[in-house]
Amino acid sequence: MNEILAIVVPCYNEEEVLPDSITKLRGVLNEMKGSGSISKKSFLLLVDDGSKDRTWEIIKENHDNSDDVWGQKLSKNCGHQSALVSGLMTARERADLSISIDADLQDDIGVIKEMVDKYHDGCEIVYGIRGSRKKDSFFKRTTAQGFYKLLSSMGVKTIYNHADFRLMSKKALDELSLYKESNLYLRGLIPLLGLKTGEVVYERGERMAGESKYPLKKMLALAVNGITSFSTEPIKIIQKTGVLVLLVCLAAAVYAFISYMTGNVEKGWTSLILSIWFLGGVQLLAIGVIGEYVGKIYGEVKQRPLYHIEELLDK
Ligand code: UDP
Ligand code: MG
Q1: Cα angle vertex 229, ends 50, 224, to 5°?
Q2: Regions of the chain short of the pLDDT cut 50
Q3: Which of 95, 113, 201, 303 is buried most deeply by CB count within 10 Å?
C-alpha cells in the first residue's frame, strides 16, 4: 500500500484557524504514514481562495518549513466549490486519492483513517456523514436539513447530511473531470458518478475560531444553484400553476357571463383588478424562473475556466 494521499483544504480568510488545522491534519498524515497505510509522499494541499487576510502567508510559511504542505493560490475569490475543484484537480494529477475537508475542521478528522481503510477495501468514493448536528446553530441545522429535503423532493439525488468531507480516488476524480459545467454543485454531481461508494459517520463539531464563511447570502446562492443545476422541477411547477390559473379563469368567465345575463355588470371591478394583479404576478414569476435557466445556459455556453491558479507551491 503505497498510494499518495492528498488532503485538500479550501481556505478563505482562515488565518484564525489555519495554524491549528495544519498541525492537526499533519498529525493525522504522519500517523498514517507511520502505520504504512499511505505513501510517505502524501501531502496537505491548502487552496487559498483569494483571502484578504494572512492566510496565504501562513500557507507559505508552512510550505517552507515542512515537506508535506503544499499551497495553491487562486488569483481571486472563486467560492468554496470552485476552490475545492481546483484543489481536487491538482490532487488528481499528483496523488492517488484525495480527501476534502473544510479548514475549520468542523468535520471529525478522527474518521480519516477509516475513510482510507474503506478505500483499501475497494471504495472509490467515501462520504463523511454527519451523525448529528447538535453543535450547529438551530438556524443552520434547520435550513440545511430543509434544503436537503427540498432537493430530494425535486428529484435531485443527494446524500443526506453529507457536505464536502469526502474521499475520492484518482479514478473518481478522473470521472469528475469529465463534467465541464461551470455551475458547480459537487454534492449533486458526485452521486452521478456511480462508482463503488462507502460511508463513515461522525459528529460535527463547532468551528474552532473565526466566523462562518457561508453567510445566509452564500447559502441561498448555493441552494438556488443546487436546485436549478440539477432539476427542471421549478419550471414544471410554474407550468402546473399556469394550467390551474387558466381553470380559475374559466370559472371566472362563467361567473362573469352569468352576472352579465342577470344584469349585475358594474360589480365586476374588484374581481377585475384582482385578476390583473394576480395574472401579472404569475407571469412575472414564470418569466423569473425561465430567466434563471436561460442565465444558466448563458453561463454554460461561455465555457469559462472555473479558476486561475496564480501560484502552486509543491515539493
Ligand atoms: N470557503 C472558500 N471560499 C469561500 C467561502 C468559504 O474556500 O468563498 C471555505 C472556507 O474557508 C472553509 C469552507 O469553505 O474551509 C467552508 O466554509 P465554512 O466553514 O465557513 O462554512 P460552514 O461550515 O459555516 O458551512
Ligand atoms: Mg465550517
Answers
A1: 70
A2: none
A3: 95
